[in-house]
Amino acid sequence: MFKRLAYGLSVLSVFLIFTASVFAEPFAYVTNGISDDVSVIDTATNMVVATIPVGDNPQAVAITPDGTRAYVSHQGSDDVFVIDTATNTVIGSPIPVGSSPQGLAITPDGTRAYVTNVDSHNVSVIDTVTNMVVATIPVGQEPFDVAITPDGSRAYVTNNDAVTVSVIDTATNMVVATIPVGANPEGVAVTPDGTRAYVVNQGPENLFVINTATNMVVGSPIPVGAEPSDVAITPDGMRAYVSNAFSDDVSVIDTATKMVVGAPITVGDQPRGVAITPDGTRVYVANASSDNVSVIDTATNMVVATIMVGDVPRDVAITPIIEPPPIADVPTLSEWGLIAMAAILGIVGFMVMRRRKVTA
Known about the structure:
The chain is mainly beta. Helices cover 13% and strands 47% of the residues. The protein contains 2 helices and 30 strands. Helix 1 (2-22) packs antiparallel against helix 2. The longest helix has 27 residues, at 333-359. The chain is globular.
């Protein structure tokens, strides 16, 4: 009897460990512009676990909210590839979009992907169910990047040559506002509460902050490093991380004070894409000229790992942490722990009583 109970508990322990590990850490997907592939990094080990061949000159990558698909834009072939993150293989046919696709963002409900087309000066909207373009939206000159508000109602597009940001109403796919910003705007990110959009400007090398309620720039521009490229905001909205391509570092901004905090964080050569893990503890930075990814600990703002990837990494996106759906009448992990503890105590009590009987 004891052996059977012990075996059952060991099986339960393996189940608990396996379940916890499955949902423990996300994966980072990195586009490599010259080697025409995507590197997949296990953020638990910071090791590359897969390399996926894709199209010509991959640029941006975005992951669906459920973590099952990664969309990759290709400037060389004017299309978007879709990767199944379970198998890390390309699925379906390439999706034709505009000329020189660059930025990518997916709506919070996962139904649409917005792609900026630099040379055709428009944005393609992809239906993620059919993987077909369902709308093409004219914006400013050379649209570079795009970010979508948490409620999915607006898309903010940086127009690199027009010195503006176009605001798209995602319900109608019409431009509803055009906001003047600094010269050569590139990266853009929206805060988790949806109240602010942060725009990186390469010309004056600063960061503009847009009030999304009024679609106006608020406060003074925030000076950052040389040729800033991308920006990412922590899940709690308290910090913004900006990659500076020519100064080979990352600036950290306190979003409450709109000021740079601490010294710039030295990373690899020509940092471009920036992404932050869902728990906010790590920042992943793609360094285009050193063919690697720097990992920053947000508690110390120090680089804690450097990961070699493909040739000329451009962008990085990180899968969400997907918790298992609740099942009716099935114990939770914490309840399983209590059950296991009760079983162990029962076994110990049983063995003690049995020993006493034998002794008597």
